[in-house]
Each structure stands twice: as structure tokens, then as C-alpha cells.
């Protein structure tokens, strides 16, 4: 039994987003982080110093480890931002701005 079945949840129809150009199916109500995790993606940012990979750490909007670029807006917390149909999600390098 998967978590949706366990909780008796029946989400609406899936929609599509892209991550670094890859098409990913998303369910309504999921955050960007949840959509990426469900697609097997666990890292979507690199650190300013050393370029080390980062993804979700706290999962509640506190640590800012999950920053990602969504629809050309860098610095979005993937664990808080709801995924929307057609979102263009990109790996964020450093601050996400041309430094
Ligand atoms: S994982 Fe900590 S703010 Fe998103």
C-alpha cells in the first residue's frame, strides 16, 4: 500500500512540469520538492562554495537548503512552493543569479 492509499487520498488528475528540461508528472497539492522526490530527484542546488549538491534538509521552510529556480525565479524554497501545471524548474547553482 502506498502513502496515498494509506491516507485514503484521491488527488485530482496529474499535470506536467519540467526539471532541467525533463518532463515530470506531478500530482495536485504537492510541493516542488515532493514532485522532484517522487521523480527520483534528490538534489537540485549546488552550494556557492565547492558546488556541493543540496536538496531537502528540514522540509519545513527553515533551513533554505532546498532553494531552486522556478519559472526563472531563483531562491524558491522547494519544500514550500506548490507545484503548478507547466512550471519550469531548474537546478540552482550558487545564488541562482549571475554573480
Ligand atoms: S528543506 Fe529546509 S527550507 Fe526547504
Give an overview in words.
With 99 residues, this protein is an alpha/beta fold. The chain is 12% helix and 28% strand. The protein is built from 2 helices and 8 strands; from the N terminus they run αββαββββββ. The strands form 2 sheets. It has a 5-stranded mixed beta sheet with strand order 2-1-7-5-6, with helices on one face. It has a 3-stranded mixed beta sheet with strand order 4-3-8, with no helix packed on it. The longest helix is centred in the middle third of the chain and has 7 residues. The model has no long low-confidence stretch (mean pLDDT 93). The structure holds FE2/S2 (inorganic) cluster.
In short:
With 99 residues, the chain is an alpha/beta fold. Helices cover 12% and strands 28% of the residues.
SSE map:
Elements: H1 3-7, E1 15-19, E2 22-26, H2 32-38, E3 45-46, E4 53-54, E5 67-70, E6 73-77, E7 88-90, E8 92-93
Parallel strand pairs: 1-7, 3-8
Antiparallel strand pairs: 1-2, 3-4, 5-6, 5-7
Bound molecules: FE2/S2 (inorganic) cluster.
Number of strands: 8
Main β-sheet, in a few words? 5 strands, mixed
Low-confidence stretches: none
User: What structural category characterises the helix and strand content?
Assistant: alpha/beta
Question: Rg to the nearest angstrom?
Answer: 14 Å
Q: Main attributes?
A:
2 helices, alpha/beta, binds FE2/S2 (inorganic) cluster, 99 residues, 3-stranded mixed beta sheet, 5-stranded mixed beta sheet
Amino acid at each position: 500500500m502506498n502513502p496515498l492509499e494509506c491516507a485514503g487520498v484521491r488527488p485530482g488528475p496529474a499535470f506536467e512540469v519540467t526539471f532541467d528540461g525533463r518532463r515530470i508528472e506531478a500530482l495536485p497539492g504537492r510541493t516542488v520538492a515532493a514532485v522532484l522526490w517522487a521523480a527520483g530527484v534528490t538534489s537540485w542546488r549546488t552550494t556557492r562554495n565547492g558546488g556541493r549538491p543540496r536538496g531537502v534538509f528540514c522540509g519545513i521552510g527553515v533551513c533554505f537548503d532546498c532553494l531552486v529556480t522556478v519559472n526563472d525565479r531563483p531562491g524558491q524554497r522547494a519544500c514550500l512552493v506548490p507545484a503548478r501545471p507547466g512550471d519550469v524548474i531548474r537546478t540552482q547553482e550558487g545564488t541562482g543569479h549571475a554573480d
